[in-house]
Amino acid sequence: MSSATATKLPSANEPEPAPAPLADQIRPLILSLSVYHDGILRLKIDEDYDHSDPPCPKTRFQVPDVITPEFDSNKLWLQRLSTETLNDESSPSTVVYLSDGYDAVLRHDPFEIYVRDKQSGNQKLISLNSHQLFDFEQLRVKKEGEEDGENWEERFRGHTDTRPYGPQSISFDVSFYSAEFVSGIPERAMSLALKPTRGPGVEKDVEPYRLFNLDVFEYLSESPFGLYGSLPLMISHGKEGRSAGFLWLNAAEMQIDVLGDGWDAESGIDWVKQKRIDTFWMSEAGIVDAFFFVGPGPKEVVRQYTSVTGRPAMPQLFSIAYHQCRWNYRDEEDVENVDAKFDEHDIPYDVLWLDIDHTDGRRYFTWDSALFPQPEEMQKKLAEKGRHVVTIVDPHIKRDDSFRLHKEAAEKGYYVKDAGGKDFDGWCWPGSSSYLDMVNPEIRSWWGDKFSYENYVGSTPSLYIWNDMNEPSVFNGPEVSMPRDALHLGGIEHRELHNSYGYYFHMATSNGLLKRGGGNDRPFVLSRAFFPGSQRYGPVWTGDNTADWDHLRVSVPMILTLGLTGIPFSGADVGGYFGNPGPELLVRWYQLGAFYPFFRGHAHQDTKRREPWLFGEKNTRLIREAIRVRYMLLPYFYTLFREANTTGLPVMRPLWMEFPSDEATFSNDEAFMIGSSLLVQGIYTEGKKYASVYLPGKELWYDIRIGDAYKGGKTHKMDAAESVPALQRAGTIIPRKDRLRRSSTQMVKDPYTLVIAVNSSQAAEGELYMDDAPFSSSKSQFSSKSIIERIILLGYAPGPKNALIEPANQKVEVELGPLMLGGSRGSSVVTIRKPAVKVSDDWTIKIL
């Protein structure tokens, strides 16, 4: 079955050159188009390897194991392939049917491809090479007698990058039509809407957005500089609520410019009347493997993208609760004391983390026998309270012949090679280190076996894993990374796959935990580096942030961008990794972080201890309340993670994802939605007691703590002295669990509370997801005995005293009660007490 149309292109899309000596001739390029379910268009451009005059010296790298087999099986027969002469051009273009609403148009001369919307008069939606900026540098070998130069090697701060195949970059322009802004292409610490990097009014020293995974020390906010992960997906959005997306599946370094209005004033294409945003994409190597997503809304774009690269993994409940981390909890006594202090101060938590110094000389899969002499007993004590341990396992392997892991990897030839063919030797935490060639499936499988209880001595079923430094970080390498001319499986240069290295390491670790549990235990593996498809293997975090207000502020657009690009399970280190937060900053960070999808406090070894009880009684209370709100909302979060698992939709969303036509939301990345029901506004300024909060839509919003109602479509001044504003949208139902426990594991059998916020039609809807976690999958039907102990009605006038439950024909009381148990503020709300209905049954409650 095929849906491809193939054609040959001249390199750089220039006129055929005059006959040249044989050695200087260029090879044709092969272009193919494929159409998939949901109107997804795929464009591939590569060299013609069958062309032998001159022959291509090697095959260019195509990223493997990212596109899911399920997506590949959804390739469609081309239902209609026709030609059409456009705008009185001299030669016809090829028109490819995508879906009932969309066509793809391939212009042959000059080369351009675009998607058009048939329902809007064939207006363009996304186009590639409309500005004729396509360029494709072909692989070649150095000719005898040819002088050395920048084509064959590059020097950078004492490092020499050999280029045995010469420059091999690819570039082109992509335009998004009827767009007000573009977002995506993480990771960087800046606004959700990407600012122009070139054009009138843009300073000349502004750099393009860079995608190149790096270990960045104390990164700056409001910088286009790339950080730990790379995800080359861009999403546009416009006034009519329309979104579109473009993905370039390429793992080499990439630089992307967003071009400001007027950049092309002299280009001669002003006849294009549609408003548009132009972008310019350039990669160091690889091929063109691009996907066009037609939307039409932002949720549809994310669904379409995750249908290509995979839906996010379903996490275990404990992993979406609170995590406590530090570099480093010193020893077993320190762990025991921290654990006891959480209980003493009635603060729940689920996971305690151990950084690199829990190991024997930073050899991973080991324990320091003096500091952690009984690791299994330590884990057992925590597990008795429903708590878990996470240990760090990084990709650098200590070069020590007495270290069994290194010896075995070296003997099997499993390490990445340097340009000379020897095992690459770089410097990282253990000192002299080598790095496994994780692009090789055989090596990934071998690595996965190392997580068995037999191989990872001292580990137990309650232990999970943290992959740090997997960009990969090499302290003495160029830009603190691996040389670009290092060699992988089949002679692949590191420059070709760099951005995917951490992805394969994450994949291998996650699959190892899956194997450890016999396929029945959902893995938890946190990764710092990421790439398209990372969402299938676990969460990521925003790396080594700093304890200042700017980093608190920028954490929101960073996490929103990750969610938009298919990674819903992410967060920022609460309190900031570097530096010492003041009490107010730390409290505000906990209050905001309680709504991050991944909620972890973490700190550098040079910082002061900052556990929640160390900042005075008032601040301990405020932090406790923030963490308790997270635990109260765990059923809602878990339900949203199930939605992410089945649709790809993010847990934490920009306002415009839920209100796509509301222009007031387009530039707002200080507030966000949790699912479709909760709006949260962070506090990012010291000493602030009130917040201005814009509430979109026409319906009411209710303060989740005190129940006060606010009108939609307006900006309100709200009290923020002791909490961040968080409001429930009218027309929604949020499930909660209100009983305080030490951990989420101990809450599993607790009853539920439903908070129903009725809209102007006195209606509301919501979902609750439950399963038999931690099992990865279950063939038997899941049943639950859980009951609902309270139903709270917001927006419903008090009056009736009773309600009738059918089909049980049972009367229950309707009374006024607190919105939050233990809370002293706020008015009483209408409450149906103790209906005691099972969540798994069908029932009706009628207020009499």
From TrEMBL:
<comment type="pathway">
    <text>Glycan metabolism; N-glycan metabolism.</text>
</comment>
<dbReference type="GO" id="GO:0090599">
    <property type="term" value="F:alpha-glucosidase activity"/>
</dbReference>
<keyword id="KW-0732">Signal</keyword>
<dbReference type="Pfam" id="PF13802">
    <property type="entry name" value="Gal_mutarotas_2"/>
</dbReference>
<dbReference type="GO" id="GO:0005783">
    <property type="term" value="C:endoplasmic reticulum"/>
</dbReference>
<feature type="domain" description="Glycosyl hydrolase family 31 C-terminal">
    <location>
        <begin position="648"/>
        <end position="734"/>
    </location>
</feature>
<dbReference type="InterPro" id="IPR000322">
    <property type="entry name" value="Glyco_hydro_31_TIM"/>
</dbReference>
<protein>
    <recommendedName>
        <fullName>Probable glucan 1,3-alpha-glucosidase</fullName>
    </recommendedName>
</protein>
<keyword id="KW-0326">Glycosidase</keyword>
<dbReference type="InterPro" id="IPR030458">
    <property type="entry name" value="Glyco_hydro_31_AS"/>
</dbReference>
<dbReference type="InterPro" id="IPR048395">
    <property type="entry name" value="Glyco_hydro_31_C"/>
</dbReference>
<comment type="similarity">
    <text>Belongs to the glycosyl hydrolase 31 family.</text>
</comment>
<dbReference type="InterPro" id="IPR025887">
    <property type="entry name" value="Glyco_hydro_31_N_dom"/>
</dbReference>
<dbReference type="GO" id="GO:0005975">
    <property type="term" value="P:carbohydrate metabolic process"/>
</dbReference>
<keyword id="KW-0378">Hydrolase</keyword>
<dbReference type="InterPro" id="IPR013780">
    <property type="entry name" value="Glyco_hydro_b"/>
</dbReference>
<feature type="domain" description="Glycoside hydrolase family 31 N-terminal">
    <location>
        <begin position="31"/>
        <end position="257"/>
    </location>
</feature>
<dbReference type="Pfam" id="PF01055">
    <property type="entry name" value="Glyco_hydro_31_2nd"/>
</dbReference>
<feature type="region of interest" description="Disordered">
    <location>
        <begin position="1"/>
        <end position="21"/>
    </location>
</feature>
<dbReference type="GO" id="GO:0030246">
    <property type="term" value="F:carbohydrate binding"/>
</dbReference>
<feature type="domain" description="Glycoside hydrolase family 31 TIM barrel">
    <location>
        <begin position="312"/>
        <end position="640"/>
    </location>
</feature>
<dbReference type="GO" id="GO:0006491">
    <property type="term" value="P:N-glycan processing"/>
</dbReference>
<dbReference type="InterPro" id="IPR011013">
    <property type="entry name" value="Gal_mutarotase_sf_dom"/>
</dbReference>
<keyword id="KW-0325">Glycoprotein</keyword>
<keyword id="KW-0256">Endoplasmic reticulum</keyword>
<dbReference type="Pfam" id="PF21365">
    <property type="entry name" value="Glyco_hydro_31_3rd"/>
</dbReference>
<dbReference type="InterPro" id="IPR017853">
    <property type="entry name" value="GH"/>
</dbReference>
